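PROTEIN DATA CARD
Card holder: Glycerol-1-phosphate dehydrogenase [NAD(P)+]
Chain length: 348
Origin: Halolamina salifodinae
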Amino acid sequence: MFDKSTWIRLPRNVVVGHGALDDLGAAVDELYLSGSPLIVTSPSPDDIVGDQVRSQLPSPETVIVAEAGFDQVQNVIDAAQSMDAGYIVGLGGGKPIDTAKMASDELDVGFVSVPTAASHDGIVSGRGSIPEGDTRHSVAAEPPLAVVADTEVIADAPWELTTAGCADIISNYTAVADWQLARRLKGVEYSEYGGALARMTAEMLVDNADLIRPGLEESAWIVVKALVSSGVAMSIAGSSRPASGAEHLFSHQLDRIAPGRALHGHQVGVGSIMTAYLHDGPDGMWQNIHAALDSLDAPTTAEDLGVTEGELLDALTSAHEIRDRYTVLGDGITEKAAREVAETTGVI
Ligand SMILES: NC(=O)C1=CN([C@@H]2O[C@H](COP(=O)(O)OP(=O)(O)OC[C@H]3O[C@@H](n4cnc5c(N)ncnc54)[C@H](OP(=O)(O)O)[C@@H]3O)[C@@H](O)[C@H]2O)C=CC1
Ligand SMILES: O=C(CO)COP(=O)(O)O
Ligand SMILES: [Zn+2]
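Structure generated from the sequence above:
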């Protein structure tokens, strides 16, 4: 087996647009894969487009993923082995897509990504992010051979899924700042291209924020392109560093402390406001991040996220424990400092 950790692995076919789902069969045929696919999805995407996807693929089988987790990845591996799947299709939001890409990696079979929501930037990346007990693992996973994103389906998805994707991209500002800090203080390896692409993607999204409105297919198109770009940045870097810093540590910790209250993207957006403040102080980028999230109707407060002041402060003070990734949180901040940043930025 080759060591692929230094390879930049990117999709061959990225099909984005109105009715793109009708091209799924053709986009897959063009990959010269053999055998039948296992489709990994969750309840809503399966209801909405499951039949349309199945009708274009040879003798598919389907697994519905209830929750993210390694047990679900194992279920998918077992199902794929028992049908001798030729490749795996991830259909839906981040949960089924990450599960599918991790199972594909384990089995060494091709992976095709079919997002039904513009809710996260894992739709193109070769990274999987899965919770396990008190930690979250960000692991190398099979990057998609093809991505098929139908803007008609995505524009019809609940608006908050799109605003979550926007916030996930806006958080690249603080993720890159954390990565640069880790390079300066800890000698962490840094990719100029990965960092520049992630930051530029956030800037372009913020510049186009006025065009991103509910129900508009053009908005879905702008956000999906940005998510693709952010995923490519992660592939170039060979890690999630360009798109995941302290704001993601905060969000992952909130998933443990207050599970299921808010979407991933919304949590990282609020985290980004606070970690921007920690980077630059009162006059820095936190106000721009706050204004951009506000203009997109994305959450900016603990209340918007449905978490209490105590839960938010708990997550911020313990976020550094989630994984060994140096950020502006260093080896942890005090409750007094956490309260000050949350109050000054209006998060609590
Ligand atoms: N690997 C990576 O680089 C990255 C991974 N992630 C991971 O992705 C996950 C978050 O992704 P997210 O998409 O929020 O999670 P989910 O897959 O849980 O999707 C969120 C919700 O959207 C619903 N949904 C999806 N598509 C539609 C649609 N078209 N219409 C109506 N509802 C729809 C799902 O419904 P239902 O459950 O009923 O099916 C679910 O309730 C996290 O686990 C995160 O860590 C995030 C960023 C990057
Ligand atoms: O959510 C991600 C990038 O937006 C993935 O990052 P993690 O490695 O922190 O899970
Ligand atoms: Zn994210």
